[in-house]
Design brief:
By secondary structure, the chain is an alpha/beta fold. It has a single domain, classed as 5'-nuclease (Rossmann fold, 3-Layer(aba) Sandwich).
């Protein structure tokens, strides 16, 4: 199954994208350092399309970031990904990920994983080339048992 994917090493969670576009975020410096380092190495960062949407939604409904009638700040997450196509590989989440994520959520029903977390776990498990996850919330990622070695990078 991994033959259809480009072998990449890094996947970003929504927390990295949110911190990168929000200069007021506690982890803004951490996020920008990782993005710059990936660019310097010529590495690509996988971002599931669902993660970009989650980052937009979190930014849009955070009143400290987005005024009630202005989505422009939240929209910058799409601009970040689109303007840096050499850095980000937006990976579509297909129908198969839905079933795998549902299985993860059932298997770990005693945990507080979000649906997006479960999709990320499934995508990483399906691609052994993904061996690093950049996230601001490593608690859930440390709990999940990946099918191969995965480094969880947190601030």
């Amino acid at each position: 199954m991994t033959g259809r994917f480009t072998r990449l090493a890094v996947l970003a969670d929504s927390g990295l994208l949110i911190a990168a576009v929000n200069r007021g975020d506690l982890h803004h410096g951490w996020a920008t350092r990782h993005l710059l380092a990936a660019r310097q190495r010529g590495a690509r960062i996988v971002v599931p399309d669902l993660v970009v949407g989650e980052a937009y939604t979190k930014l849009r409904y955070d009143r400290r970031v987005s005024p009630r009638k202005d989505a422009s700040i939240a929209l910058t997450v799409f601009n970040l990904v689109d303007a840096n196509a050499d850095l980000f590989e937006v990976r579509a989440v297909g129908r198969a990920a839905f079933g795998r994520a549902r299985h993860v959520l059932a298997q770990y029903s005693d945990q507080s994983f979000s649906y997006v977390d479960a999709v990320i776990f499934s995508l990483v498990d399906d691609d052994p080339g993904l061996n690093q996850v950049l996230t601001v919330d490593g608690r859930d990622f440390a709990t999940y048992r990946f099918g191969h070695a995965v480094q969880i990078v947190v601030p």
